[in-house]
Design brief:
By secondary structure, this protein is of the alpha/beta class. It has two domains: about 170 residues, no CATH class; about 120 residues, no CATH class. It is about 55% helix and about 5% strand. The protein has 15 helices and four strands. A four-stranded mixed sheet has the order 1-2-4-3. It is globular. It comes from Amycolatopsis iheyensis. This is DUF2268 domain-containing protein.
Length: about 290
């Protein structure tokens, strides 16, 4: 197993300093080594268009602001820190579940878009994805809170990656429920907290609602919802649902993360398992055990 954290820093600097007409092709070249994370998309995806849709740094404005942000990432040692965190986390996870499949990992760290109000506001300057086996994607703005959580963010996405890698939990788009994603977010946060503690391990988006019983109760009513188009509102909240053209359900940002943490913590307390030991726990078992307490 190898972990490759793509050295995107020099490429991003080159893109931001290049003539505007050259930037899309330079960006495409930077993204190509991570194109495998889009392998389930129909046809051949446009990497530049996906970058824009995903709140990646802009190609036509805020150049100086983005270059300063890249300096902040460089000064924080972001790429090396992420690599070390993943190496350490894989060792912890394999010790707890020695039979799991650990794929070779390609990690793409990209600067986010400071002009995107949803990204900088409700998303708190961070989007990430670890759902495609062998690929981790982190798109962020270097707010101090995000820099402090670099390791925990990477480990959170690693937990998703290992849960859904071959031999693990099967994500079937036809039958998967909101409950599976909510539990997966709770498990990923619990694993990050196992390694980095509660102060850094919680995904920021869910922290404000961890103790909100009304939010928790509302999310519980949606755990059986199917249809992945419906998941955004239940997991990320109404603001994200509206942003991506989905129906809101009356939930604040990060509601599913907060509820997932509560469900998983109750399950771990009932079973005595660590987050690492519970990597492949059945989401229905987690939910039933947690709600029975």
């Amino acid at each position: 197993m190898t972990i490759t954290v793509l050295d995107t820093l020099p490429a991003m600097r080159e893109i931001l300093r290049a003539p505007a007409a050259d930037r899309p092709e330079l960006l495409r070249a930077m993204l190509r080594p991570a194109a495998g994370m889009y392998r389930y998309f129909p046809g051949e995806p446009d990497l530049v268009a996906l970058h824009r849709m995903g709140s990646g740094f802009p190609l036509d404005r805020d150049g100086e602001r983005c270059l300063e942000a890249l300096d902040a990432l460089a000064e924080a040692g972001a790429w090396a820190r992420i690599g070390r965190a993943l190496e350490d986390a894989v060792a912890v996870q394999v010790a707890a579940t020695p039979g799991i499949t650990v794929p070779d990992l390609t990690v793409l760290l990209v600067l986010g878009d400071p002009g995107d109000e949803h990204f900088m506001g409700p998303s708190l300057g961070l989007t990430a994805n670890g759902s495609v086996s062998g690929h981790l994607f982190l798109n962020l703005w270097p707010f101090p809170e995000n820099l402090a959580r670099l390791e925990a963010t990477a480990v959170h996405e690693l937990n998703h990656n290992l849960r859904y890698s071959p031999g693990g939990v099967v994500w079937d788009p036809a039958t998967v429920t909101v409950g599976e994603q909510v539990v997966s977010e709770g498990l990923a946060d619990a694993f990050a907290r196992q390694l980095y503690g509660d102060e850094l391990g919680y995904a920021r988006i869910g922290v404000a609602h961890l103790a909100d019983d009304a939010v928790f109760a509302k999310v519980v009513t949606g755990l059986g919802v199917t249809g992945m188009r419906n998941f955004t509102a239940w997991v990320h909240g109404d603001a994200s649902a509206i942003r991506f053209g989905a129906e809101p359900v009356g939930l604040p940002s990060g509601a599913g993360y907060a509820a997932g943490n509560r469900l998983v913590d109750a399950y771990l307390a009932a079973t005595g398992r660590t987050a690492a030991e519970a990597l492949l726990a059945d989401s229905r078992e987690v939910i039933d055990t947690a709600l029975a307490r």
